[in-house]
Amino acid sequence: MTSRKGIILAGGSGTRLYPLTLAISKQLMPVYDKPMIYYPLSVLMLSGIREIAIITTPEDQEQFVRLLGDGSQWGMAFTYIVQPSPDGLAQAYILAEDFLDGAPSAMILGDNIYFGHGLPEILAKADGRKEGGTVFGYYVADPERYGVVAFDGEGQVSEIIEKPEVPPSNYAVTGLYFLDGDAPRRAREVKPSPRGELEIVTLLESYLRDGALSVERMGRGYAWLDTGTHSSLLDAGNFVRTLAVRQGMQSGCPEEIAYRQGWIDGDQLRSHAEKFKKTAYGRFLFGLLEASPQHPVG
């Protein structure tokens, strides 16, 4: 069975974060003590995915390569793909078609952060569906601001409605998509929307019409943060800082996940810790070498 591959969509112009993003990609901005892209990367790693395509703008790609390298330091393999212009989320599947080579995929937006004790379990559940697609619905107080999932009488997804005036539920569709190997073909059939983009909702609707779309609900106990505005970027940083200070644990830490997944060994982890030894991040990595195996991962 073909292993699932990952896609991180880290393109876009980040205009909502101007002037911060005039000289640097949004996904390279700090969220407390780590670059933003570490957080979506960690979600794919928690899914057991080791081959990842990172889609960037032409001008930002060199900085991502400098930060992330080829992935081998974490026992992974990264491929870099240029998105010439931001023509919609569904375009990512067309750009990544050769990389995917028929494999199922998990795509995550580079500015989305997820946290929750049961996160690895619902990721595993989605990964277990090799046919069709799975999206993640997050319970929000203001669903009219999002794409919202409508459920039928049996609790199955019946419709996805973009910014509905009368929301059919409180579950917003988040920026994480598990799709089968048919996604690139379906994406090529998506027609541009009135704003000229290949919309992800249109791609998901093609799965829905075939009865092949599932929703994993994320309710109490989960955090989903979109860092696309100045306020939400600050909120995310404060959230991560609170977790680190109160619990002494890191969220979005690739070294920790790679170590616990068995992708790197203790000597490699120690090498990472030495590199960051002047920081709390480095001290946390040193602590992992002595930590109990029951220590939670996030």
SSE pattern, N- to C-terminal: EEEHEHEHHEEHEEEEHHEEHHHH
Quaternary: single chain
Strand order of the largest sheet: 5-4-1-6-11-8-12
Give the CA-CA distance, first to last residue: 27 Å
Q: Give the CATH level 1 class.
A: Alpha Beta
Computed over alpha carbons, the radius of gyration is 19 Å
Low-confidence stretches: none
The appropriate CATH architecture is Alpha-Beta Complex
CATH superfamily: Spore Coat Polysaccharide Biosynthesis Protein SpsA, Chain A
Task: Supply the number of structural domains.
Answer: 1
The rough form would be described as globular
- Determine the mean pLDDT: 93
Structure description:
- This protein is of the alpha/beta class.
- The chain has a single domain (5-137, 170-264), classed as Spore Coat Polysaccharide Biosynthesis Protein SpsA, Chain A, CATH 3.90.550.10.
- The chain is built from eleven helices and 13 strands.
- It has helices at residues 38-46, 61-68, 91-95, 97-100, 119-127, 183-188, 200-209, 230-247, 254-260, 266-275, 280-288, and strands spanning 5-10, 30-31, 34-35, 51-56, 77-82, 105-109, 112-116, 133-139, 147-151, 157-162, 171-179, 213-218, 222-226.
- The strands form four sheets. It has a seven-stranded mixed β-sheet. The protein has a two-stranded antiparallel ribbon with strand order 2-3. A two-stranded antiparallel ribbon has the order 7-13.
- β2 (30-31) and β3 (34-35) form a beta hairpin.
- α10 (266-275) runs antiparallel to α11 (280-288).
- It comes from Martelella radicis.
- InterPro entries: G1P_thy_trans_s (IPR005907), NTP_transferase_dom (IPR005835), Nucleotide-diphossugar_trans (IPR029044).
- This is Glucose-1-phosphate thymidylyltransferase.
